[in-house]
Amino acid sequence: MAGTARSGRRSRAFTPYLLVLPAVAYLAVFFVVPMWSLLRTSLSENTGSVFLPTLEFNWNFTNYTDAFSDFHDQIVRSFVYGGLATLICLVLAYPLAYVIAFKSGRYKNFLLGLVIVPFFVTFLVRTLAWKTILADDGWLVDVLGKVGMLPSEGRLLSTSWAVVGGLVYNFLPFMVLPLYVSLEKLDPRLIEAARDLYSGSWRAFRKVILPLSMPGVLAGSLLVFIPAAGDFINAQYLGGTQNTMIGNVIEKQFLVVKDYPAAAALSFVLMALILAAVLAYTWALGTEDLV
Amino acid sequence: MTAVLDAAPPPDAGPAVAPAPAPARPRRTGRVGDLVLKVVAGLVLVYLFAPIAVIVLFSFNEPRGKFNLTWKGFTLENWAHPFKYPQLTDALVTSLHVAALSTAIALVLGTLAALALVRHRFRGDGGVDAFLVLSLTAPEVVMGASLLTMFIDFGWNRGFGTIVLAHVSFEVAFVALTVRARLRGFDWTLEDASMDLGATPLRTFRLVTLPLILPGIVAAAMLSFALSLDDFIITYFNSGSTVTYPLYVNAATKTGLPPQINVLATSILLVSLALLGLAVLWQRRFGHDRLTRSTSP
Question: Considering only A101-105, A176-180, B52-56, B147-151, which range has the smallest mean pLDDT?
Fold first, then answer.
């Protein structure tokens, strides 16, 4: 550790503060102040016209009650889609992370690189590619129809599954990487010890590997769930009018309808619910598996 | 939360300790299990690459009409004229400018903070850490919306400047946490050793400190640049009339998607892969491994 470098240099006591000051000051101005602006807006009322909004701050809590009553469906849908996407990501990412960490030999770096490669193709262009793959006249619908897995006239695009699939696709690397990191840190001798004590593969996984990889499961779940619950691109391009999420509403209220107070209140509702979900999840994982 | 940042930079991110060779496993179930695992992992990789393959393939498409969404025939025409649509080219150039400028600012702010967090213990370091992570937990749509309300409150015109400011605000934490993850566990007494041997502070920085921290900074720079180039949501809220590459693509979904979008996407992919390869090679030759080896058991 870096302990020695830290010790006993009184003259430099203020150095770390000087070093962190620029970053902290920047985030104070461009993260905290905007959040404050958003909070004030969420409690304001538009006293002007739609075209020339004049916002007046008057503790207008109706924005919040309206947010719940008007967009109840979208709120629920965002959390169901986000939760499902997180779960599917976990199921898909675990075997991949496990193979990369323990079974890939000298291909390890290459495989890790492959997981990151999709990041280099713009998010939006990747989502459009899915639109091509899932299109009504595309070969996937054709093949699934012929095999009988999809009813004739059945579609893939504009369904809930297309949106969830897009979310899974876009955020999967965020699950693989932290899982890999936590598995890679795991001492393989622990698995050997379990095997030597006549534990079967499944038992060794459940009793040794899974509990020790919990930090990765937690970090990955947060990194997938937070952006997935707030996303609007996948619902916009892959979903239909029945699949809109809270992100779509915020985007529309802000940039099209220009009802800033309603949009701001929705943003805080989204953040508060995400925070609640994250705390509940952390608590559940923590009590069941880590203690 | 920060665990991902250990691995997010180029693929050699893993700790120097190689996993012990897989223990010989005579049990049949183990071998079958291995095979199943590898097949599943392979399928997941196929899923990750299916759209990428489609994007590359459709850069060779010859679409009838304005939308490059269904396969009509093979052509090299698009690759012969990658810059046929000046607005698309301009949008890409704007994106590259935004990415370069915002990354440069975020690198300075983030690296300084990372150095403070790794090398010093000070009152409030945990708070700084939590603050950095907190800035990553806000969903993009909220981040974009909050910046927009502030810019409206301040009466600032949205455009190139506000895009750069917004990008720096999500890049700073990524840079700080990536650099910090890479610097942990380094043997900083090497600096003292260098000084004891009579090197000036400047020489020590150039010959010891810089080689130690450079791989982390390069990794953070690549990550930050990629995030900026990729960002749509936050940019969408704060762009004014400035058009970046993702914004152009979004507008084009309504008016017509030329195959040149795919040509440029494929080109970015190829350039990034080449840079990634170079970074890995460079790190193997001049990387921190030689300097840190002394500290590993």
Answer: A101-105
Residue A173 dihedral angles phi and psi, to the nearest 5°: -55, -30
pLDDT in tens, B131-177: 998 888 889 999 999 999 999 889 899 999 999 999 999 999 999 98
Measuring CA to CA, which residue among B124, B122, B142, B137 is closest to residue B174?
A: B137
Q: Is A200 on the interface with B (CB under 8 A)?
A: yes
Which residue segments constitute the domains of chain B, with CATH numbers given?
Answer: 85-295 (1.10.3720.10)
pTM: 0.84
Residues of B in contact with A13 (CB under 8 A): 122
Which one of B55, B125, B139 has the shortest CB-CB distance to A227? B139
**Which of chain B's residues have a Cβ under 8 Å away from the Cβ of A272?**
none
Tokens of residue A152, six digits:
């004739």
Q: Which residues does residue A56 pair with via DSSP β-bridges, in sequence order?
A: A45
User: What Å distances lie between residue B281 and A253, B107, B278, CA to CA?
Assistant: 48, 22, 5
Query: With bands split at pLDDT 50, 70 and 90, how would you rate the model's confidence at B79?
Result: very high
The 3 state secondary structure assigned to A30-79 is: HHHHHHHHHHHHHCEEECCCCCCCCEEECCCCHHHHHHHHHCHHHHHHHH
Number of other CB atoms surrounding residue A139 within 10 Å: 10
Nearest-neighbour CA in chain A from B294: distance (Å): 13
This model of the complex carries an ipTM of: 0.85
Contact criterion met (CB below 8 Å) for B164 and B98: yes
Q: Output the six-digit token pair for A151.
A: 């009813």
**Does pLDDT of A117 surpass 80?**
yes
| Cβ contact, residue pair B230, A232, below 8 Å | no
Domains and CATH numbers, chain A: 19-60 (no CATH), 71-290 (1.10.3720.10)
Residue of B nearest to A33 (CA): B150
Q: A156 CA to chain B: closest CA distance, Å?
A: 15
Helix H or strand E encompassing B171? helix B160-183
Residues 6+ apart with CB under 8 A from B288: B186, B211, B212, B215
What's phi and psi for B61, nearest 5 deg? -80, 155
Query: A197 touching B, CB under 8 A?
Result: no
| Closest CA–CA distance from residue A66 to any residue of chain B (Å) | 18
Q: Looking at beta carbons, which pairs linking B273-278 to residues 24 or more positions away fall under 8 Å? A: B273/A117, B273/A120, B275/B222, B276/A113, B276/A116, B276/B10, B276/B11, B276/B222
